[in-house]
Amino acid sequence: MIVSSDDENLIISNQLEAKEIDFDKSYENSIRPKTFNDYIGQTELKETLSISIKSAQKREQSIDHMLFYGPPGLGKTTLAGVIANEMGVNIKITSAPALERPRDIIGILMGLKTGEILFIDEIHRLNKIAEEILYPAMEDFCIDMMTGKSQATKNLRIPVPKFTLIGATTKAGSLSGPLRDRFGIIHRLEFYSIDELMQVLKRTAKILDIKIDKNGLNAIAKRSRGTPRIANRLIKRVRDYALVRYNSDVTGQIANEALDMLKIDKVGLNSTDRNLLKLIIEKYDGGPVGIETIAAALCEDVKTIEDVCEPYLLQAGLILRTPRGRKVSPEGYRLLNFVPPALQCGLFD
Ligand code: ADE
Predict the structure, then answer these.
(1) For residue 114, with 0-12 CB atoms within 10 Å meaning exposed, 13-18 middle and 19 or more buried, which class applies?
(2) Does residue 102 have its Cβ closer than 6 Å to ligand 1?
């Protein structure tokens, strides 16, 4: 990508306002873990990353660019912060929608210091221009600029400090091939087990001074759909309920009552998830039905259905993806107390 002189002038006159968040400010006093030791789950990923970090440190070079993908709330940003902390470097956090104009990404790249980490969330949403500015920056640590007017234009390669880009996305498939190819380390984050979520919750309870017993931890973990962000949100709601209704610490029974009140069922589905299953079963004979039809019928946007509801429903085996749309699985039927179609026909009688 060649950037026009307009953008270059902006850089030279130093009028850029880089759209970045100072990681430390939002990070301090939060419940996010800062070290691999504190970061629960994603065991294999942590091991691979820790080797890459140690190798980069031994070679005294920056670590390869990394791409983390997976459903929201599994800790992609948190992990980037942990990596920065383990490497003893600063991290600049931004997200693709904030990098609308060439000067947004250029400003951030030029403002980086050697070895720093640049974290771009929702990286699949980068526009073409920003992507093309990133290519030489990732590969050769430079930005290609064009200076001068009309016939007198000249290409200029401006060096940027050696940095590591960490991209995060819920949609690895939506990343362009050339961008994906420039990441040396690509990893998927997995849903957390009940046991891992209980550990996350125990740690959070300690930090937030919430008194909760093992049954309470287990009840919340079971209904957190494999996602620490959800678990950490629910524990606060359950704490409020325990305090107001019982003036008590959190027990299993109180947690279950609170979660029932919040309409989060035994496997963590909320009313949107259940409405989605019910819609496909009742209106579309169990499917297949297209995602747009589902979203329109539920008055939700396609992105929410695809990125928030579907990943867990798929992972839990409650819906199936087919080339002709989504279908509810026999487990999905049973969960909502419907009889699966094969049984309706008497096939298994
Ligand atoms: N909070 C959110 N994600 C976490 C994780 N993976 N480990 C510990 N605490 C967390």
Answers:
(1) exposed
(2) no
For residue 178, what is the enclosing H or E element?
A: helix 177-181
pTM value is: 0.86
3-state DSSP assignment of residue 92: strand
Residues in a beta bridge with 121: 95
**CB of 200 closer than 6 A to ligand 1?**
yes
For residue range 54-103, what is the model confidence (pLDDT) as tens digits?
999 999 988 999 999 999 999 999 999 999 999 999 999 999 999 999 99
Side chain identity at residue 86, one-letter code: E
> If you average pLDDT over every residue of the chain, what do you get?
90
Which DSSP string corresponds to 261-320? HTT--TTS--HHHHHHHHHHHHHHTT--B-HHHHHHHHT--HHHIIIIIHHHHHHTTSEE
Ligand 1 contact via 81 beta carbon (within 6 Å): no
User: How high is the pLDDT of residue 343?
Assistant: 65
What is the atom index within ligand 1 of the atom nearest the CA of 41?
6
Residues identified as active-site: 76-77, 121, 170, 229
Q: Is 286 left (phi over 0), alpha (psi -120 to 50) or beta?
A: left
CB contact at 8 A, 58 and 88: no
Question: pLDDT digit string (tens) for 273-320?
Answer: 999 999 999 999 999 999 999 999 999 999 899 989 999 999 999 999
